[in-house]
Amino acid sequence: KNEVEQSPQNLTAQEGEFITINCSYSVGISALHWLQQHPGGGIVSLFMLSSGKKKHGRLIATINIQEKHSSLHITASHPRDSAVYICAVVPPIDDYGGSQGNLIFGKGTKLSVKP
Amino acid sequence: EAGVAQSPRYKIIEKRQSVAFWCNPISGHATLYWYQQILGQGPKLLIQFQNNGVVDDSQLPKDRFSAERLKGVDSTLKIQPAKLEDSAVYLCASSLDFDRGLYEQYFGPGTRLTVT
Q: Could you give phi then psi for residue A97, rounded to 5 degrees?
């Protein structure tokens, strides 16, 4: 079982729809990233959060530490939101000894928004 | 603020050839990471530097991959000789200072390597 699981793997939506991508993890964490990767390969960090909720424009990220779950929401989706969205967690340093708590990545959710 | 720069953006080589990638992190960032991302998978950490010292290279295939970060700024990642399975996107990222808890990572545009 992967330590970071995302759902769904693929998502197709119509422009304007409200979108939710989920991330569950099984390890202790100090923070969680939501990342966006466009077909060219580059990754953009959307959010890093360790509690509660963050909002930036049409994007909202929430995290529930007790339930080990985070969600990324996109309101009023647009074709330019089409990308792969990746959840990545930062483990506490103690869990991984000398590894310094490197990111553990989910496999990503491929979102396609149709006009 | 300039982001993480990588070059080249794309590279096609034949197996058994050598290749090198370059990364310039965000100015002042002490921690630098190289990731390998095979199509359809999440990124895999190859090596992490703190300034010019290696923190973690446990997943770096040291028989063919090498990386350095002289002077604690720019970094190069080399593959010699390349294999078909090395075809991937190589991502560089940096963070302000992981040792001080400043671990939000900023990613470069990546280098897409195709080995034929």
A: 55, -125
Chain B contact probe: residue of A30, A94, A102, A105 with most B CBs at under 10 A: A102
Query: Does the beta-carbon distance from A100 to B33 stay under 8 Å?
Result: no
Q: Which residues of B touch A106 (CB under 8 A)?
A: 42
B91 at interface of A, judged by CB pairs closer than 8 A: yes
Contact between residue B114 and residue B14 where contact means Cβ atoms under 8 Å apart: no
Q: How many CB pairs under 8 A join A and B?
A: 64
Give the mean pLDDT of B25-53: 91
Angle at A19 between CA A14 and CA A21, to 5 degrees: 135
The mean per-residue pLDDT over the stretch A29-49 comes to 86
Residue type, B114: T
Q: Are the C-beta atoms of A73 and B28 separated by less than 8 Å?
A: no
pLDDT more than 70, % of chain A: 90
**Is A107 close to B41, i.e. CB distance below 8 A?**
yes
For chain A, the maximum distance between any two Cα atoms, rounded to a whole number of angstroms, is 48
Q: What percent of chain B has pLDDT over 70?
A: 94
Cα R_g (chain A), whole angstroms: 14
